[in-house]
Design brief:
Elements (H helix, E strand, L loop, with lengths): L3 E4 L9 H10 L4 E7 L11 H9 L5 E7 L7 H7 L3 E5 L6 H10 L3 E6 L17 E5 L15 H14 L4 E5 L6 H7 L4 E4 L1 H4 L4 H11 L3
Parallel strand pairs: 1-8, 2-3, 3-4, 4-5, 5-6, 6-7, 7-8
This protein binds D-xylitol-5-phosphate and zinc ion.
Length: 220
């Protein structure tokens, strides 16, 4: 068993996006990570639901893993579900109504994910863990690609793995930020099941080789 690789298109060549997506899909990636940034919850602005719609319509079989870095995500989860998101992630820091936001995602037929920033403890999301399909532990502060992996966050992955076992739950544990073929190893050992990688996969010349390296690095 290896980690599920979720390349983030944030670092891709947008003018050749279709081709960039095919490269990672053919190399063994199973998810495609789509970062939505509102210029408020995080300083950057990225792209919106039409991108999800077009990627879905392109015929890609990748699971579309949409990470909402937006304030009050409950206002837009339905729009992203309709656009074709398979998984929708909402930050616990972005709304006082995290339970409602997750309910809405499930009601819309998508997989529900709760996300925590590096400054947020696992304890804060314990009340909603029974209802999620995936938890995303940020391993950088959200908002930008290309930042350095925060190794202290691995402890949260281990906590979540233990919580899963002791409560008979089965959610996936995803990490996002600073992932490469070195940083993934300890995080995988601690219980990571899905790894987002942006600049590691897309910054240099061979995205397919990078996806394969992440799979090989966790094949033990
Ligand atoms: C950061 C985003 C990430 C980003 C990761 O705010 O949530 O998904 O694309 O980029 P890398 O892998 O370069 O840290
Ligand atoms: Zn992300």
């Amino acid at each position: 068993m290896s980690v599920i690789v979720a390349p983030s298109i944030l670092a891709a060549d947008y003018l050749n996006l279709g081709e960039q997506i095919k490269l990672v899909e053919n190399a063994g990636a199973k998810y495609l990570h789509i970062d939505i940034m509102d210029g408020d919850f995080v300083p950057s602005i990225s792209y919106g639901p039409d991108w999800v719609k077009q990627i879905k319509a392109s015929g890609s079989k990748l699971t579309l893993d949409v990470h909402l870095m937006v304030n009050h995500p409950e206002k837009i989860v339905d729009t992203f579900a309709e656009a074709g998101a398979d998984i929708i992630g909402v930050h616990v820091e972005a709304t006082p109504h995290i339970h409602r936001a997750l309910q809405m995602i499930k009601n819309a037929g998508a997989r529900a994910e709760v996300v925590i920033n590096p400054g947020t403890p696992v304890a804060l999301i314990e009340p909603v863990l029974y209802m999620v399909d995936q938890v995303l532990v940020m391993t950088v502060n959200p908002g930008f690609g290309g930042q350095k992996f925060l190794p202290e966050e691995i402890e949260k992955v281990a906590q979540l793995r233990d919580y899963k076992k002791s409560h008979g739950l089965n959610f996936d544990i995803e990490i996002d930020g600073g992932v490469n073929d070195k940083t993934i190893v300890e995080a995988y050992k601690a219980g990571t099941t899905v790894a987002v990688a942006g600049s590691y996969v897309y910054d240099k010349v061979d995205p397919a080789a990078k996806v394969k390296k992440l799979i090989e690095a966790t094949d033990f």
